Amino acid sequence: DEASVPQHMHEHHAKPNSSSSRPPFDSQFWEPFLGHANFHITTDSPVAQRLFGIGLLLIYNFNQADARAAFQAALQADPMCAMCAWGVAHTCGPFLNRPTKAPEELALGFESAQNASRLLMHRRHSGKERAFIKTMAVRYPKDPQTGDQLASYKRYATLFRTTRENDEQLRNDPELMVFDAEAAMVLMCDASGYHFYESHGDYVPPTETAATKEASALLEAALVSTNQSHMYAQHLLIHSTEMSNSEAATSVSIAVQLLKNTAGLQDQHLQHM
């Protein structure tokens, strides 16, 4: 529950909107101004594509509750949309501020990942979509009550890394690089906070772990390939460098660029960063 989350995580946790006070996602009267997600998926429905983009941008904002609602609405618009089911599955898993999940979310995550895998068989999908969906299939334990979710997250991160690196066409895809970094960074978080750096006491600056260095390099590469415009790469890179004295300039410059990218939008959590 929220009370178990450390205070510094409360400060970074995006608050979902009240679902009872807003129109449904397919209403023309409600659409958050979050920017643009450059991720085209296999669907015959423009509504599903639009809602998928909204859900993805809400993931970038660490707003899983509203992201899930967007992906579920996208599935209503196109019940055969495999990536929409992937989106629901992703929102049930860990993120930096909530690295472990309750059994109810694990169960929905597993069910949605299996649904995405089934839907993958019915249409021609890109290699990028297949990579996201096939790796998601191992992210959750089969038994949400007794399964080891941390072991599942490790399998997911390992499979994601090898899937991306072993495919020349996917290796440098910015979206895959960012979610690869996300999977690695989640493994460095627990209920006590982020562990991207190793502490050496009060008088010696902390040093980044090898895993943090790899994640930051992926995020920086994703930003280069998107002309410094990928908001989730910017968000995660701020977190991966914010504890470093030597990388302080990087954090500040990325934060300034992120604020420019979200100016006039409703990405409250990204603007907070």
Any chance you could write out the topology, listing elements then pairs?
Blueprint: H1 7-12, H2 46-60, H3 64-77, H4 82-91, H5 103-119, H6 127-136, H7 149-165, H8 174-186, E1 189-190, E2 193-194, E3 197-198, E4 207-208, H9 210-225, H10 231-241, H11 248-262, H12 268-272
Antiparallel strand pairs: 1-2, 3-4
Helix pairs in contact: 2-3, 2-4, 3-4, 4-5, 4-6, 6-7, 7-8, 8-9, 8-10, 9-10, 10-11
Please, could you describe this protein's structure?
55% of the residues lie in helices and 3% in strands. The model is unreliable at 1-23 and 269-273 (pLDDT under 50). Helix 8 packs parallel to helix 10 and helix 10 packs antiparallel against helix 11 (248-262). The chain is an all-alpha fold and 273 residues long. It has twelve helices and four strands, in the order ααααααααββββαααα. Strands 1-2 form a two-stranded antiparallel sheet. A two-stranded antiparallel ribbon has the order 3-4.
Summarize the structure.
The chain is mainly α. The chain contains twelve helices and four strands; from the N terminus they run H-H-H-H-H-H-H-H-E-E-E-E-H-H-H-H. The strands form two sheets. Strands 1-2 form a two-stranded antiparallel sheet. A two-stranded antiparallel sheet has the order 3-4.
Question: Can you tell me the overall shape?
Answer: globular
Mean pLDDT: 84
Main sheet attributes: strand count, strand direction, barrel closure: 2 strands, antiparallel
User: Rounded to an integer, what's the Rg over CA atoms?
Assistant: 18 Å
Order of helices and strands: HHHHHHHHEEEEHHHH
Instruction: Look at the helices and sheets and give the structural class.
Output: mainly alpha
- Uncertain runs are 1-23, 269-273
End-to-end CA span: 23 Å
Strands of the biggest beta sheet: in what spatial order? 1-2
Number of extended strands? 4
Binned strand content: under 5%
Number of helices: 12
- The helical percent reads 40-55%
